[in-house]
Amino acid sequence: MRTLDDILKDGAALFVFLSDAGTAAGPAGVLLAMGSQDLRVADTAARAFQEVGADYLVCSGGFGKDTTGLLKEPESVLYARRCRELGVPADRILIEDKSTNSGENFRFSRALLAERKIYPRTGVVACKPYMAKRAWATGTKQWPEVRWSVFRQELSLTEYLSQGNDLTAVLNLMVGDLQRLRAYAGIFQAPVPVPEPVWQMYERLAADGYNRYVIGAS
């Protein structure tokens, strides 16, 4: 049985790895706010809109694996409301409220813009910190016409948890995301190298019971 300190050490290192996706480049044709259970992503998106700049902000997300039964309104609707409160002009916000996973965030947002004859060449993703690497990989594969970069909060796992995020939920989600970097590489996501020491963190945390979103887990 591993101690909580051991688990937190692996979790903190995994958080750093998953959060590392470079620096956002702008101004962008589209800013895509990826829906999730972390509603602070809306604040991140509004900040990205103001600091990096974008022609349009697409708030994307219906109800996903971590928000079904938790939220009363689609992730995107809640995001858009918050972004308007934070000063993003309403006429620059589009809502995509049907996606249920990261691939659909990009595909459905792409279709939404295409319906309006909008074809961006550059894009910035606003997302949870530990979604950064997977967001870049997903966008690069699912919407390859756009050159993607990522805008996120820059903070540690400890700081992220201090915002009220639940440790168990975050560890489960990070373990699932790390597995998908390998399992979906070249299929649903652009390949991202996962060093063996990082993979060993995944295996230890999954064995600790943080395997709720592991593909194939019973």
Description:
By secondary structure, the protein is of the alpha/beta class. It folds into two domains: 4-17 and 156-207, no CATH class; 21-151, HUPs (Rossmann fold, 3-Layer(aba) Sandwich), CATH 3.40.50.620. The chain has helices at 4-19, 41-51, 75-85, 102-115, 132-142, 157-162, 167-183, 196-207; strands at residues 28-34, 54-60, 93-96, 122-126, 147-151. A five-stranded parallel β-sheet has the order 3-2-1-4-5, with helices on both faces. Strand 4 (122-126), helix 5 (132-142) and strand 5 form a beta-alpha-beta unit. Helix 7 crosses helix 8. It starts with a helix and ends in an 11-residue tail after the last helix.
Note the beta-strand portion. 5-15%
Radius of gyration of CA atoms, rounded to a whole number: 17 Å
* Terminal-residue CA separation: 20 Å
The CATH homologous superfamily of the largest domain is called HUPs
Q: Under CATH, the topology of the largest domain is which?
A: Rossmann fold
SS summary, helix count: 8
Mean pLDDT: 95
**Total number of β-strand segments?**
5
Helix and strand pattern: HEHEHEHEHEHHH
Q: Architecture of the largest domain, CATH level 2?
A: 3-Layer(aba) Sandwich
CATH class of the largest domain: Alpha Beta
Strand order within the widest beta sheet: 3-2-1-4-5
As a percent range, the share of helical residues equals 40-55%
Identify low-pLDDT runs: none
Domains, number = 2
- SS-based class: alpha/beta
Shape: globular
The largest sheet, given as strand count, sense and whether it forms a barrel, is:
5 strands, parallel
